[in-house]
From TrEMBL:
It comes from Alloacidobacterium dinghuense. GO terms for molecular function: carbohydrate transmembrane transporter activity; porin activity. Its main location: membrane. Pfam families: LamB. Residues 40-85 form a coiled coil. This is Carbohydrate porin. GO terms for cellular component: cell outer membrane; pore complex. It is found in: Cell outer membrane. The keyword Signal does not apply. Keywords: Cell outer membrane, Coiled coil, Ion transport, Membrane, Porin, Transmembrane, Transmembrane beta strand, Transport. Gene3D superfamilies: Porin, LamB type. It is a multi-pass membrane protein. Belongs to the porin LamB (TC 1.B.3) family. GO terms for biological process: monoatomic ion transport; polysaccharide transport.
């Protein structure tokens, strides 16, 4: 007994045989029955009908044989590769065509099935397509796009554009409902070597970041007379490589421009330690008890030039971190910075020509304690820092104070800073983020007293649903600068002594029930007041003769 595809082929062939035999028998019958010959037109019609059926059956048989040959070839190939063969679309169409021919409608075969049987894909075609798809997947897999932005618009209670409330001498402000700009950081990463980070191979990536900071006054910088403060800057452009030393597979080498291991306080957007800049180094060296990072960082002030060029500052930065100890992780760091002086040239903007700028150096150190898993989704961080001279601002480039304004007494400048912050979120209905900092600085000028900045604030959030929440933020800043401004071209405002209080209510639509869930849409109302000692220093033009102010507006914020 014959079964399977071969049985179907035999059935088709048997039917063709029967048709042929029928034609022969009909011819013999016509010859034998000479007494009653058929009419010529009837005989011709019968012959034509048999011819059409024969041609249709032959075509269907050819289609089926071709389909079976393709199936047989694929089964052989699958057997060689130890895989199960499958029937292609071409085979299914051929089988359907053969079946319809055998069941009738033979006179429509050519018109109905013409063009439905496409040629089967060749091996070269499939191979090239697979290669193109593989390359495309590799390119997509190696590319990353990250970023952050905030944008919105607000008005002040006097009817003009929103202004921010920030105390003089304070290096940051409490940010909820108090940000009068559009700000974005767009990060592009290309993992061009070993993007999957296979442990037996080196890897490399390029990272670029563009920073945009606009005034929210208009969506175009084409103002008359150059009015407008839009800024677009390249803040990161570096290459990083890892797994290049066998006994230090986690060490990462880098060179270029980058944000370098910054410490951040979220609700007032303050960076206690920011050594971002240009340079190179290595990080995540394994010390067995923790990790080590070493970097050489540089920056310059194009607004101050000497006979040696732009005034430059070089920093050597060393950090030990992720040290397991009591209550969590510990870290310590040390910086040494130097800046070569000279004589100011006529091209200067900030320093009069001919001014002698001394060569300075200095050091800074600090430690930090972190508990990254604290009461559910929270964390805790405490830091202590002290610096002198050229290193006294705890910054290489990132905070905007690239190099302190030159002074004959810069070597004697000092800064002391303590910060503490924590996030407490016991459940998915409530979160609270308090923080505190104390900063004490001196410019080193004889008889100048210490400047002080004390700040504490808190932002609780209540989550009503997965998407609806309410954020409230209160902040307090006390600032004191008893010194007269302008001595030894330090350009420091003063004297002043006073406090600033600010509170914001912001209903929100967000993407989840976490404090850091983003994106978020918010409306806000912000009220601030300040002491008489800060009158004229807070609120800009709308509130220069007042000690309180109100703003309101909308904002969106996201990171990815």
């Amino acid at each position: 007994m014959i079964s399977g595809p071969n049985a179907k082929a035999c059935t088709v062939w048997s039917r063709a045989q029967r048709i042929i035999c029928g034609v022969v028998v009909l011819a013999l019958g016509i010859t034998a029955a000479g007494q009653q010959p058929a009419k010529p037109d009837q005989l011709e019609d019968q012959v034509q009908e048999l011819k059409q059926e024969y041609e249709a059956t032959t075509q269907a048989l050819s289609l089926r044989i071709a389909a079976l040959e393709q199936q047989l070839e694929k089964q052989r190939e699958a057997a060689r590769e130890n895989k199960t063969g499958t029937i292609s679309a071409a085979e299914l169409v051929a089988e359907q065509a053969a079946g319809k021919v055998l069941s009738g409608n033979s006179n429509q075969v050519g018109a109905k099935f013409q063009g439905q049987l496409s040629s089967a894909p060749t091996y070269d075609f499939i191979r090239d397509a697979d290669q193109r798809i593989t390359k495309l997947q590799q390119q997509v897999g190696s590319f990353e796009f990250h970023g952050y932005f905030r944008s919105g618009y607000g008005l002040n209670s006097e009817g003009g554009q929103m202004v921010a409330f920030q105390a003089p001498g304070a290096e940051a402000k409490y940010r909820l409902g108090n940000e009068a700009e559009t700000y974005a950081e767009l990060i592009f990463v290309d993992n061009w070597l070993n993007p999957d980070r296979d442990s037996d191979k080196a890897w490399a990536k390029c990272e670029f970041m563009i920073e945009a900071n606009t005034s929210n006054s208009a969506n175009s910088a084409n103002f008359p007379d150059g009015i407008g403060n839009d800024q677009f800057r390249f803040r990161e452009a570096f290459v990083q490589m890892g797994n290049v030393i066998e006994n230090q597979p986690n060490a990462k080498f880098w060179a270029g421009e980058r944000y370098y291991r910054r410490q951040h306080m979220d609700i007032n957007d303050f960076y206690p330690l920011d050594a971002s800049g240009y340079g190179g180094g290595v990080e995540d060296l394994d010390l067995k008890f923790g990790k080590l990072a070493l970097a050489f960082l540089n920056s310059a002030r194009p607004d101050i030039t000497t006979q040696y060029g732009n005034l430059a500052k070089s920093t050597i930065d060393a950090r030990a971190y992720d040290i397991k100890g009591p209550l969590g992780l510990w870290a310590m760091w040390f910086d040494y910075a130097t800046s070569k002086g000279g004589t100011a040239t006529a091209a200067n903007i900030s320093v009069p020509s001919g001014t002698r700028i001394p060569t300075t150096d200095g050091y800074a150190f600090g430690f930090r304690h972190q508990k990254l898993e604290w009461h559910g989704d929270g964390f805790h961080s405490f830091s202590f820092m002290y610096g002198t001279g050229a290193a006294s601002n705890f910054s290489s480039n990132g905070s905007g104070v690239v190099i302190p304004n030159p002074s004959l007494y810069l070597d004697s400048s000092k800064q002391f800073l303590i910060t503490e912050q924590l996030l407490y979120q016991p459940n998915d209905r409530f979160a609270i983020y308090p923080q505190f900092l104390y900063q004490r600085t001196t410019d080193g000028i004889p008889h100048h007293e210490w400047n002080e900045w004390v700040s504490f604030g808190v932002r609780p959030e209540v989550f009503f649903t997965k998407y609806l929440s309410l954020a409230v933020e209160g902040g307090f800043d006390y600032v004191k600068n008893p010194n007269v401004a302008g001595q030894n071209f330090t350009n420091v405002l003063g004297p002043y002594d006073g406090w600033l209080r600010k509170i914001t209510f912001a209903p929100q639509i967000g993407a989840g029930r976490k404090y850091f869930s983003r994106p978020v849409l918010r409306a806000f109302v912000t009220y601030a007041n300040w002491s008489n000692g800060l009158k004229g220093y807070v609120g800009g033009v709308p509130f220069q003769n007042r000690t309180s102010g109100l703003t309101f507006g909308v904002q969106s914020e996201s990171w990815w």
